[in-house]
Amino acid sequence: MQIRKYITSDCEQLAKLFYQTVHSVNAKDYTKEQLDVWATGTVDLKEWDKSFLKHFTIVAIENNEIVGFGDIDESGYLDRLFVHREHQREGIASAICDKLEQAVSIRTITTHSSITARPFFEHRGYRVIREQTVIRNGIALTNFIMEK
Questions:
Q1: Domain-wise residue ranges, the chain
Q2: How many CB atoms within 10 Å of residue 12?
Q3: Are 85 and 66 in contact (CB under 8 A)?
Q4: Which fold has domain 2-106?
Q5: Which of 60, 116, 122, 131 has a Cα at 20 to 30 A from 144?
Q6: With 90 as the cut, is the pLDDT of residue 35 above it?
Q7: Average of per-residue pLDDT across 85-91
């Protein structure tokens, strides 16, 4: 597996990977209605690209295919961390997270974790600060503010 910095031409692939991962991996913890408002299948690629370029963003590649990605901002907020549904439990998320956590000089890293990802982050030493409910298009989604 190779890990490299994000480039603009990755954006569309990351949007597809995000949608597919949410709708498959997270399906055990969220309803179809919740998944549909979380990952609608349409993202503003220009806004995502701008966000990825502003943050420290990396992608994981295996056999010339992007199999995961993550990003963190200067404040230590780990924004996105997603791994392809067919590459779960291969150490990809850990490798990405290691690089993201090392990329910032901030001591405290914060993330908003899904129900699905909570055990992954707890295993890495993150603790739940609080559970929260986010409303998207009138649909409630539970996640956890966590920090390390």
A1: 2-106
A2: 13
A3: no
A4: Aminopeptidase (3.40.630)
A5: 60
A6: yes
A7: 95
Residues composing the chain: 148
Q: From 136, 131, 118, select the one nearest 148 (Cα to Cα).
A: 118
Residue among 67, 74, 103, 88 nearest 25 (CA): 88
The letter for the amino acid at 53 is L
pLDDT of residue 106: 82
> In this predicted model, which residue has the larger pLDDT, 107 or 115?
115
What is the separation, in whole angstroms, between the first and last Cα of the chain? 26
Q: Which string of DSSP letters, residue by residue, matches 62-100?
A: ETTEEEEEEEE-TTSEEEEEEE-GGGTTSSHHHHHHHHH
Distance of CA 69 to CAs 48, 72, 133, 140, Å? Answer: 13, 11, 25, 26
How many whole angstroms separate alpha carbon 10 and alpha carbon 49? Answer: 9
Q: What's residue 110's pLDDT?
A: 97
Q: What is the pLDDT of residue 128?
A: 98
As given in the structure block, the two tokens for residue 19 are 């949608």
